[in-house]
Amino acid sequence: MLKIKNLHASVEDKKILKGINLEVNPGEIHAIMGPNGSGKSTLASVIAGREDFQITRGKIEFDGEDLDDMAPEERAHKGIFLSFQYPVEIPGVTVTNFIRTAINETRKARGLEEMPANQMLKMIREKAELLDIDRKFLSRSLNEGFSGGEKKRNEIFQMAMLEPKLAILDETDSGLDIDALRIVANGVNKLRTPENAVIVITHYQRLLEYIVPDFVHVLHNGKIAKSGTKELALELEEKGYDWIKQEAVL
């Protein structure tokens, strides 16, 4: 589904990614870990198409198509979803209106008519129930006055409604207490299918107790320094990142 080959990327002439190679297939969950400044969020932003990041070498393919010249909204319409580490507040736009607009814009880009209102309402109810979301929550302004847990749960609700092929969760566990973490992780697990894939970016192994990855990749200095299974995350929890840095130097 996703092929990244020798990816180099910079922001404001500062090199951040220095040769990333990664393949993600349908049905897989990949965890990206690493110390601060290793390039985790940059990788997520580059895949999603943030324009302040410049690809200087290499390529990203999604379902066999080169993403280089695609705008962020085109990538979203193709099925790439990015859950933000710090979701923005949009006063005056309700959660329901936001998601209705997002879905219909994607349908329009795919040559489909707008989703009928009764079908949309049924889908909203089903997904809200799946994620234990209170109906009152859906009539609130997007993220305005939301707690950290509510913001992250709203991101997962958007993911549930948009049904992306590839979901990238950028430090979704950031600032969550254990109950909110379980709710968010449970939502991700319920939405997993053999046709979609998830990239989880995290500092900590605790999230991976609830969202169990097929593969774990450790970034260091803009490169994947080590890959393994979920046991690698446990090893990082125990030893920290210093041994990875030392291995990368050798």
TrEMBL record:
Residues 2-246 form the ABC transporter domain. InterPro entries: AAA+_ATPase (IPR003593), ABC_transporter-like_ATP-bd (IPR003439), FeS-cluster_ATPase_SufC (IPR010230), P-loop_NTPase (IPR027417). SUPFAM superfamilies: P-loop containing nucleoside triphosphate hydrolases. It holds the Pfam family ABC_tran. It comes from the Bacteria. SMART domains: AAA. Keywords: ATP-binding, Nucleotide-binding. Gene3D superfamilies: P-loop containing nucleotide triphosphate hydrolases. Belongs to the ABC transporter superfamily. Ycf16 family. This is Fe-S cluster assembly ATPase SufC. It comes from Robiginitalea marina.
